């Protein structure tokens, strides 16, 4: 459990963040320079806020009103960066021991993070993924109350990232500590986090469960940040219990997810997601005839670029299902879009 509400003014930047999370892994997601790292530094005690309050698992780290400001060493925060910050003159096991003199715990961490076999090697003799496991073991050896991860995986390739994600989840379950992760990568957020804090220019703009935030982005800017790419403009013409209908400029009526606060007559943007395509017609889908512009294939997906209302829209079809869709570049095709995967965003929100 983390509760934070802090302000810190710099010459050219103002950090003003407030959020609380009861979840296991929270992701701070924002463009570069939004204050993600600064937020972690205030939690770690490396940057002192001008005012505010920080509480982690019932322990008060900072409270400007009560004059509380625990020094970093008393906060017991595990902090991991992109550069591993291992001591080059120490072996793997010596690096981990630096975090704790408890030999049992050190041995356990070497085992959990699968670095036993390299325990006598020096950092220069091991791979990037192994270095990050050692850094993680060293951070956990201090028995931290909270683990802060500042883009620790961004320099690693995909397979290594996936194996470290598994480690992080395992560690969270074993140690039960909250983890705050800074990430630029929405796939990473979906893979790891159960809560997302979207930030912009030093402020929190939206929080929630990742899928819910993804399907209900606050505005166009947040939608783009989360990876939405294709938007169509229209007006809401009916609202039901689960779905609503949007009339596009060409007159097509598109069934979309219902959204709180969106009413008949509202001007909205409809976001067509790569996975909005439905395999077969249903009550919750809309039939459209589209022009197929481009088709390309990868191992997992067929990528189809179609034109809807003069907008280029990218759709993905899992390769295993692609024989069900007969499409040719330059020709029209009939497709069905699933309302469940079509979010709407109120214009001007
Ligand atoms: N000690 C400091 N003094 C003055 N300004 C700072 C200080 N630390 C950070 N900043 C400024 O605060 C802003 C936010 O920085 P921060 O590193 O928190 O962003 P970020 O969201 O983590 O970005 P990135 O994803 O690029 O790491 C930046 O404009 C940065 O220049």
UniProtKB/TrEMBL annotation:
Cross-referenced PROSITE patterns: ABC_TRANSPORTER_1 (PS00211), ABC_TRANSPORTER_2 (PS50893)
Keyword annotations from UniProtKB, A to Z: ATP-binding, Nucleotide-binding, Transport
Transmembrane segments: none
GO molecular function, one term: ATP binding
Stored InterPro entries: AAA+_ATPase (IPR003593), ABC_SmlMolc_Importer (IPR050093), ABC_transporter-like_ATP-bd (IPR003439), ABC_transporter-like_CS (IPR017871), P-loop_NTPase (IPR027417)
SMART domains per UniProt: AAA
Sequence ranges assigned to domain ABC transporter in this UniProt record: 1-226
Keyword Ribosomal protein (UniProt): no
Signal peptide: none
Alphabetical list of Pfam families matching this protein: ABC_tran
Domain of life, source organism: Bacteria
Name of the protein described by the UniProt record: Molybdate transport system ATP-binding protein
Organism for this UniProt entry: Phorcysia thermohydrogeniphila
